[in-house]
Amino acid sequence: MTADALPPARPATLEDVARVAGVSRATVSRVINGTPTVDPALRRTVLEAVEATRYVPNRAARSLVTRRTDSIALVVSEQERRSVSAPFVGRMFSDPYFGRVVAGLLDVLRPAGVQMVLMLVDDETSRDQLLAYLRQGHVDGVALVSSHAADPLPGLITGTGLPAVLAGRSPRSTGTTYVEVDQHAGAQLAADHLVSLGRRRIGTVAGPQDMPAGQARLEGFRGALAAHGIDDLAWAEGDFTHAGGAAATKRLLAERPDLDGVFIASDLMAMGALPVLARAGRTVPRDVAVVGFDDSDAALACDPPLTTVRQPVEEMSAEMARLLLRRIGGTDGLQPSVVFHPSLVVRESA
Amino acid sequence: MTADALPPARPATLEDVARVAGVSRATVSRVINGTPTVDPALRRTVLEAVEATRYVPNRAARSLVTRRTDSIALVVSEQERRSVSAPFVGRMFSDPYFGRVVAGLLDVLRPAGVQMVLMLVDDETSRDQLLAYLRQGHVDGVALVSSHAADPLPGLITGTGLPAVLAGRSPRSTGTTYVEVDQHAGAQLAADHLVSLGRRRIGTVAGPQDMPAGQARLEGFRGALAAHGIDDLAWAEGDFTHAGGAAATKRLLAERPDLDGVFIASDLMAMGALPVLARAGRTVPRDVAVVGFDDSDAALACDPPLTTVRQPVEEMSAEMARLLLRRIGGTDGLQPSVVFHPSLVVRESA
DNA sequence: ATGAAAGCGCTAACAT
DNA sequence: ATGTTAGCGCTTTCAT
Predict the structure, then answer these.
(1) I need a surface site. Which of A63, A82, B63, B217 has the fewest CB within 10 A?
(2) How far is the CA of B43 from the C1' of C11 (A)?
């Protein structure tokens, strides 16, 4: 068994390619990186050598010198786990919202050749680990999806000096670039629609009041209703989950049995709410008109299909990725935040 | 403005720490990496210097020499996108299953200091990108969640020589280590339970027949029923989504209006099915007993709470991570696959 | 347009 | 137990 007849166990390096092509390492590097000043003939020779040696660049080596990693962290920050032994909840992961965020990010990141490291922060340990990791310089930037208003993470991440973009404004870190939908405008769309339908005995299943999105949608809805002269808004707080939406709807119905219109602050909660309304003998939309928020897959899975406030999550997260890449590559400093406009998608529930 | 009074723009290196501590780089490295043969006094001095310089190791440099990256890829392989312009579907991301997989992996990975790079493969381009990325050696191993039976990815990944573990057996790559639940046994639990309840006019909403899990659950259910002398199984194919479950249930009901028991191959589909049954005037479990599969959050969100076959996804994916780490760190070759036992969780739907 | 050479920050022999 | 030293594979001046 002649050693040099076999393919090398060790993957090919620039050196190997250079030897095969009969050029210097530098030239190979230039070809690999698309530097324009390379003789076309040589370029071809090199490319063939690359092929022959099955060369792929070593990212660690490259990263060591360029100080770029071509990857960003997608950080999901959730409320602390209930207890050590409690089963993981991971609400964020089961929410269609998360998938849409990933999709939008990937749409921009993949063509740019940037990878995404997924990190979950749900206690102090994991937070410290995250910050250490970020400081190790293994990512070029951070996209953060944080669930609670009091979360210190946005500020801490900004403190690392790494480029960062938030999904949604953080009350604790106003200096950080964010992308979000105009929550007030969205809630207003819902209010106007219900009122235009002639509904007056209106209620809402709000999101968690310790989340900015939950607060803003409730506040916006209440304000818009007030503008229509409706001041007694019945509401119940849900947790943005299916089950939470069902439970909150039960409470709401108990408090306000004569309800004829309801705004539910997320489609997932609306999915939980509809069967509750049905069981309570209310026909949607005849007895109770229902407007959701998000326009996720869940809205279509509802029965009847859900009228809802559309939040262009994919476009929003694509924009997050763009801001991040611009900031990473760019000489320019902080990017301005971006606020998207919601729209009303009318289906059958209202 | 005196330059050296300011904190250095450049992050501290081993060299810096060594200088401050008055020792060699090697000693600092030993302290950082917990080598036992270091004088306790020196260790303290070094640790102080680390503190003072705010030193954090550079991962790229370390990785370049150790040839380890302390990260693995979580690859999610989905059916090719419908069209270029079609909105991203990302079924996997909205499924509670995905969150549970991530949770289980993280449970093992985080204490081990291993990061997770999330990669989505949904067309040829992204597949090629993935394979190139893997060959660049930026991850030490791969955990793969693949949705379709004909997926060539398991084999291709194994072909890279990187340690890999699959969530679920792949018909195309029998040589790859996998972790899965005994699907047949699970389906049998469902069948036995329905029969023990006295149900005889039984149907099933199966999963996609181009997914191993979809096939196996149908096959197992049919076999178990046959053992009870029931041979005329009505079934409809769903796609493991809520909406798909609803649609399939409608078809099933049309075909078999006298149905008194049904096995639905995922909780998410069961969630879609229950309102359909209710609308059709069937009370669950009185008229139709329903058994799901998964025991995810969805099962509890059902009304009535779902009797279901429990699949210990978190433990399974934790085991995937363990196998992977063992294989990565280990001298031993291929790890044996692991099959978990399902159990029946009886609630109110059957 | 190409090559030579100097590191990037770290670990792991090896020597002491 | 600690220090010295030789790279890991790559990019990037700086010459030519």
Answers:
(1) A82
(2) 18
| pLDDT of B118 strictly over 90 | yes
C-beta of residue A193 within 8 angstroms of C-beta of residue A225: no
Residue B213 has pLDDT above 90, yes or no: yes
Residue ranges of the alpha helices (H) in chain A?
14-21, 25-32, 40-53, 59-66, 91-94, 96-109, 124-135, 153-159, 183-196, 212-227, 242-255, 267-279, 297-301, 313-329
Rounded Cα distance, A65 and A33, in Å: 14
Report the distance from CA of residue A22 to the C1' of nucleotide D16 in Å, as an integer: 19
Contact B234, B251 (CB under 8 A): no
* Pairwise CA distance, residues B267 & B348, whole Å: 14
Beta bridge pairs of residue B145: B76
Q: What is the pLDDT of residue A9?
A: 58
Chain A residues near residue B106 by CB distance under 8 angstroms: 120
Q: Is the CB of B68 under 7 A from strand C?
A: no
- Which of B247, B251, B245, B176 lies closest to B214 in space, CA to CA? B245
The token pair that represents A47 in the structure block: 């490319």
Interface membership of B70 toward A (CB under 8 Å) = no
Rounded mean pLDDT, A147-170: 91
DSSP letter for B68, please: -
Return the number of other C-beta atoms located less than 10 Å from residue B33's C-beta.
11
Residue B93, CA distances (Å) to A81, B88, B207 in order: 21, 11, 17
CA of A275 to C1' of C7 (A): 67
Confidence of residue B38 (pLDDT cuts 50, 70, 90): confident
Domains parsed from chain A with CATH numbers: 14-66 (1.10.260.40), 71-181+313-341 (3.40.50.2300), 183-310 (3.40.50.2300)
The reply to whether omega before A285 is within 30° of 0 (cis) is yes
- The count of C-alpha atoms lying within 13 angstroms of the C-alpha of A184, restricted to the half-sphere facing its C-beta, is 5
Report the percent of chain B where pLDDT is more than 70: 94
> For residues A174 and A337, what is the distance between their CA atoms, to the nearest angstrom?
10
User: What order of strands is seen across the sheet that includes strand B261-264?
Assistant: B234-237, B202-206, B261-264, B289-294, B307-310, B343-345
Q: Which of B275, B183, B270, B187 is nearest to B233 (CA)?
A: B187
Q: Taking a contact as any Cβ pair under 8 Å apart, which residues of chain B between 125 and 144 contact chain A?
A: 126, 129, 132-133, 135-138
Neighboring chain A residues of B119 at a CB cutoff of 8 Å = 115-116
- Mean pLDDT across the stretch B174-197? 96
Torsion angle (degrees, nearest 10) of CA B212, B107, B65, A113: 60
Neighbour count for residue B311 (Cβ, 10 Å): 26
pLDDT tens by residue, B238-275: 999 988 999 999 999 999 999 999 999 999 999 999 99
Token look-up 């018909």 returns B171
* Contact (CB, 8 A) for A308 and A291: yes
Name the band, by pLDDT with cuts 50, 70 and 90, for residue B90.
low
C-beta atoms surrounding B233 within 10 Å? 17
**DSSP string of A209-234?**
TTSHHHHHHHHHHHHHHHHTT----E
Q: Does B305 touch chain A (CB under 8 A)?
A: no
Enter the tokens of residue B95. 């499924």
Model pTM score:
0.91
Any idea how long chain A is?
350
Flag residues 57-86 of A with CB < 7 Å from strand D: 57-58, 61-62, 64-66
| Position B298 pLDDT exceeds 90 | no
Q: At what angle do helices B59-66 and A59-66 cross, to 10 degrees?
A: 150
- In total, chain B counts a number of residues equal to 350
